[in-house]
């Protein structure tokens, strides 16, 4: 059972992630790295939606595993896009390499916090 210390630690890490992404945009006056926030916030949604859509019955052990696999694929795609998008922008010269690094580290902190939050506060289903 996660307590108050876990919530405080996760909110602190999330704040650092958002601060890095915002600073990567504000310091160089180029707001393209803010797109990373959108990809990392949207990334857990396909996994969550597809896991809810694939409710397994008592009679079928692996019914709907294709839907769950599709959700995991889309989540992985969005996470990789959150890393690759700033790298692409830096390679094209649209943002600087330091902004790319700050954006990637901040985005990974944001996504890691979202995953940690869902892992710590997951409810066990009992019948």
TrEMBL record:
The lineage of its organism: Eukaryota, Fungi, Dikarya, Ascomycota, Pezizomycotina. The chain crosses the membrane at residues 7-28, 70-89, 101-121. It comes from Tothia fuscella. It is a multi-pass membrane protein. Belongs to the OB-RGRP/VPS55 family. GO terms for biological process: late endosome to vacuole transport via multivesicular body sorting pathway. The keyword Kinase does not apply. Keywords: Membrane, Transmembrane, Transmembrane helix. The keyword Nucleus does not apply. It is found in: Membrane. This is Vacuolar protein sorting 55 superfamily protein. Signal peptide: none annotated. GO terms for cellular component: Vps55/Vps68 complex. It comes from the Eukaryota.
């Amino acid at each position: 059972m996660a307590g108050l210390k876990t919530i405080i630690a996760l909110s602190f890490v999330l704040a650092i992630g958002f601060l890095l992404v915002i600073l990567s945009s504000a310091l160089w006056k180029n707001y393209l790295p803010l797109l990373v926030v959108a990809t990392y916030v949207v990334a857990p949604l396909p996994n969550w939606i597809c896991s809810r859509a694939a409710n397994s019955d008592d009679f079928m052990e692996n019914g709907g595993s294709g839907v769950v696999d599709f959700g995991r694929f889309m989540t992985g795609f969005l996470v990789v896009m959150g890393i690759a998008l700033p790298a692409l922008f830096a390679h094209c010269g649209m943002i600087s390499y330091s902004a790319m690094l700050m954006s990637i580290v901040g985005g990974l902190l944001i996504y890691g916090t979202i995953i940690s939050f869902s892992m710590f506060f997951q409810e066990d289903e009992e019948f």
